[in-house]
Amino acid sequence: MTKQRKSGKRPPAKKAPVKASASGSSASSVSLPALGSRRAWSATARFGAVIVAVACVLFYMNIKDVYEAQNSALAATESNSQVTVERGDAALAFRPVEGMGDTGFIFYPGGKVEYEAYAPLMQQMAQRGIFCVLVEMPFELAILEKSAAGVYPADYPEITNWVIGGHDMGGRMAASYAAKNAESLSGLVLLGAYSSKDLTQSGLPVLSITAELDTVVDENKMERNRENLPEDTLEKTIAGGNHSGFGDYGLQDGDTEAAIPAAQQQEQTAQIIADWIAALP
């Protein structure tokens, strides 16, 4: 559940009374702003208020349309014989019932996508022995809380190695977090995403997975930002997959219909990640 901050107004400051000088004139001892400057200030304040109001309206219009998790994704948020799902504060943890290793995976969802849409992918990874934390972002935008990953190592001390990853905007924000916290991470996973931060000297292993039919991700930005990744970055492509298929939220605007079911794309993705994690030093 997204936390809301409480806000309050300061009480108005009390104005000191203006005292007249001995000569009976207060103008000689008190400097008042010229009428023109006060009018200018009022006009500036009104203009600023309009700008803030317009920004709020545009922000609301941008976030009100969210891709909802499909019923099959919501079903994956429940525990089963192989995976125990733990509901925390703004996160879901997926714990393997058997064979859990010492590596955990923190995942940032794509922009304007309900975080539960990635539960099927987390289930697939947990079934392969990887403890996963699926993070809920404010307004479904990872850019608003890109440092969220920092709290989970303390919450789960039994996990000694942490990999961070994400899809689309979530991947970019995960990369931004990794660039500043490489020493506390064991790897970075990008799904249909790129890093705008330089990771070439981070010493961090990176896995980049794309989908063959993805027409949402900006190919020019992907290519331009490839230079930010280490030379030994492992790049994989899901044949027949698309951008939306990394999650379970329907077809995203601008995407191409996939040639394979989303469940198959998620299974392949989970296996690639699990194999890569197993090979980490």
Q: Find the count of extended strands (DSSP E, 2+ residues).
A: 8
Structural class: alpha/beta
From the N-terminal CA to the C-terminal CA, the straight-line distance is 36 Å
Poorly predicted runs of 5 or more residues: 1-41, 54-58
- From the spread of the alpha carbons, the general shape counts as globular
How helix-rich are the residues, as a percent range? 25-40%
Order of helices and strands: HHEEEHEHEHEEHEH
Q: What share of residues are in beta strands?
A: 15-25%
Sheet with the most strands, sense and barrel status: 8 strands, mixed
The Cα radius of gyration reads 25 Å
Number of helical segments with 4 or more residues: 7
Q: Please give the order of strands in the largest beta sheet.
A: 1-2-4-3-5-6-7-8
Mean pLDDT: 86
In words, what does this structure look like?
The chain has an 8-stranded mixed sheet with strand order 1-2-4-3-5-6-7-8, sandwiched between helices. The protein is built from 7 helices and 8 strands, in the order H-H-E-E-E-H-E-H-E-H-E-E-H-E-H. Strand 3, helix 3 and strand 4 form a beta-alpha-beta unit. Helix 3 (119-126) crosses helix 7. Mean pLDDT is 86; it is low at 1-41 and 54-58. It has helices at residues 35-63, 71-75, 119-126, 152-155, 169-180, 219-224, 262-278, and strands spanning 83-88, 91-96, 103-108, 131-135, 161-167, 187-191, 206-211, 234-238. The chain is 29% helix and 16% strand. The chain is an alpha/beta fold.
